[in-house]
Amino acid sequence: MAARWFRTARLIVGCMVLALVGAGPAVAQPTNGDAVNDRVPMPGSTPQWARPDLKAGRVSPGSQRRVLVALSLRNRAEAQQRAIEVSTPGSPRYRHFLTAEQFVDRFGPDQHTVDRVRTWLQEAGLHVEGVSANRHLVTATGRVEQLERAFGTGLARYRYGKDVLVAPESPVRIPADLRGEVSAVLGLDDSHRLIRSRLVRSPQQTTQGPEGSGGAEEDCAEYWAQHNNTAVPQKYPEGRQSNVLCGYTANQLRAIYGLGQEATGAGRTIGITGECTLATAESDTNRWSRRMGLPPLRPGQYREVLQPGAAADAPECRGSGWGVEQALDIQSVRAMAPDADIVYYGGAPESGSVFEALNTAIAQNETPVISNSWGEDEPEVPTDVRTQFADMVTQAANQGQSILFSSGDSGDNSGPSAFGFAAPDFPAESPMVTAVGGTSVGLDAQNRVEFTTGWENSADQLQDGQWAPIQSADGDFIGGAGGGVSPNYSMPIYQRGVVSTRYARGQRAVPDISALANNFTGMRIGFTQAPHGFVLEPVGGTSLASPLIAGLLADRMQVHGVQRMGFLNPWIYRSYRSPGLADVTHHDAGVWTSRMHLADRTLVTGSYLVDFDSKPQSLQSMPGWDPVTGVGTPTRTFVYGY
């Protein structure tokens, strides 16, 4: 197991400061001969996977790379304290939000700092592309030899599993007069290649064309237990075993959360971030809407803000798989809030551009809720990346933006297809975002909820007429909501008294709230996929849960006449055990399927029974806060009441 970064992020109300303190690697001299006296190293600027024993050679000096130089907030401690105060019910500053312009004037990097960074990069021969509206990111491109000169380190290739990734050989070195004013340099290493969407596709076959009958293979159930294969052993009582579902429709999803026709999210705007864009996203959503009985998108109701290289025809975007994620995010928001406007912020699959997309959403400040269905598939996220991320979400909280992150789909991440040890995902583990976990829901023919339990799936295979746990690299685990205890952040004050100190041991616990995620129930979405054309397919994962919560927030804001709710966690934990949140506990239930994906996404066929919330690793739902569903899942009262 590789060594982990241990750092703390303390959230304190009263003397409320979010301290971001980290241990960095030993100082190393640059390898390219640029050992000038006016340079200082940036601790925490090299990824832990870039070990000397894994080095596979140097990077071609003439190859091009794009980097993002992140600038630190001014008066960071004050900005972080204010972020908590405006987000905490009962605080004199509660919901006294700043505009983007007010935040930048008060806390953003000043123009003098931007000019000095621009001069430094240009003198090294780099082309400065631009500066973000909030002055947080300065983007530049150049040849590797120029980047090595600018940042005082060599770039090398390192073996990472089956891949080869680029990273600095030693800590980045910056001009001494910029110490404390540059928080990170994104794009020098290939950490961005480890960012994945949190979508889990159902193993069921897709249905082609506008006249397809459902969304999956013929033996799937349109609602819980509509079909149940009685030719296989019945492990669960009557009504608790079903064939795999075809994916819930928009109407069924609204029934799960008790939404009436008047809850539409009208007048509210939801932001979504991801990588690349699907060329047919809008037309696919309109085709899906017709199938779901929803009106088409109004002109201008959906729009895109794309970073350079994020276009659908960009070379690195072709076949990236992010298009299905985009379709899921848009359509799940529409299911919950069909009249809400949607803005998709797309980053390119390079240089941390998905962080750039999120920063754009925050800097523009047009979307009071931003759903993010992605995360790092690497536990050792460099400290500088965490620091610059904290600056971004601190701005969002001050502006009243709610930042949601999917908690992940690999359970506690202890399986070999994930981290190999128990730890939650980043950025979901950040105490300044709302981590959205996952549930499994059985909805009957009358649109009544039969049960809600956690999403932690295991699988049995039919052998000699009996069910036996499957044997794979991850044991019988085949997917579940991410959760657990962060080694990187201390327990925020809003979790105290709700999350068991015996469980969390004084650390940040994940997730905070939850919604439908189980891919064996899932949601039926529509998208264009070669060579089939337009298809309907059931999809799940916490990639579904996060935008569902976003849509419910739009409904709540509409119903209550509120424009922004801000950083949600202090309010969510104040709402613990209130009628607006249903406590999710374990229920025995399962589905039969003839097709199944293992935890590593390998498709297998046969006769399988998928057990819900069966604790295949260390996670399971339970009374009170739990590491699968957080404090619970929204009820009708979440939108209409309290």
UniProtKB/TrEMBL annotation:
GO terms for biological process: proteolysis. Its cofactor is Ca(2+). Residues 1-28 form the signal peptide. Keywords: Calcium, Hydrolase, Metal-binding, Protease, Serine protease, Signal, Zymogen. The keyword Calcium applies. Coiled coil: none annotated. GO terms for molecular function: metal ion binding; serine-type endopeptidase activity; tripeptidyl-peptidase activity. Residues 198-217 are annotated as: Disordered. Pfam families: Peptidase_S8, Pro-kuma_activ. Residues 247-642 form the Peptidase S53 domain. The keyword Metal-binding applies. PANTHER family: PROTEASE S8 TRIPEPTIDYL PEPTIDASE I CLN2, TRIPEPTIDYL-PEPTIDASE 1. This is Serine protease. It comes from Longimycelium tulufanense.
